[in-house]
Amino acid sequence: MKRTLLLLSATFITSTLFGQTFEQISTGAGYANQQFYDLDSKTGVTVASEGWDLMFTAFGLQDAGIHVNEAVDLSFGAPAPAVELYLAETADFESVTAFDTNFVRLYNDEGGWANGALNVNLIPEDPLDYGWGKYNPATRQVVGDDVFVIRLRSGEYKKFMIETLDATVYNIKYADLDGENEQAAAINKNDYPSGLVPFSFASNEALNLEVSGFDLLYTRYQTVLIDPESGEGLDYIVTGILSAPGVEVAKVEGIDPAEVNADTEL
Fold first, then answer.
1. What is the CA radius of gyration of the chain?
2. Across residues 87-100, what is the average pLDDT?
3. Model confidence over 233-249: pLDDT tens digits?
4. Which of 8, 65, 70, 251 is least surrounded by Cβ atoms within 10 Å, i.e. has the fewest?
């Protein structure tokens, strides 16, 4: 689940409780990098913030979460171009030939890793619906039924579909909006022990984090800030820390971190 200052405090509390030294986590100048950090080994895997576009979950057989990379670094104090994801609201790949201002921009769900931006339109009451596609019991595949458009940091647009999740393999099709430069990619969950698979359209490759697990992800992401007077929300980029899949976080208030009793207060 996503947290900001709460998880930063949790990192420091853990260090104090177990007599460890404080660790300084670097994300590079202008937040150029993301750090996938393991608390036990006190080591991290560094990934360039601009090094990927989509993140596929690879927890097991039944998950099909797909996230967009919301991280944006800073250039001379100003945000660099962001990756923008849109729903074209059609299942016909060939029918999307240009960007339409009526396309709906999508953001990641802040509730956890199971569902990302491509899953936000799922019907909660339908256990077969994954948002980007539906599970077909006859073929035992999740079959894509939505076309998405992504604006890359370069300003280039691509249309794409997740055609199927066949057993453990995501099958992706994408092309320029005019249909040129069509390509395909396949991501096998079994090849990525970290449980999360970053994918880049520019390289047509998935990145292997080369770790069996991590605890915290130091990064930047979109969140909704609510105006207390108007009640209106504003999508805003924040710097924060995300807990890894399966990692639980406890919040302790009004206590000196050096005096926290892990057995009774966490």
1. 20
2. 96
3. 777 778 888 888 888 88
4. 251
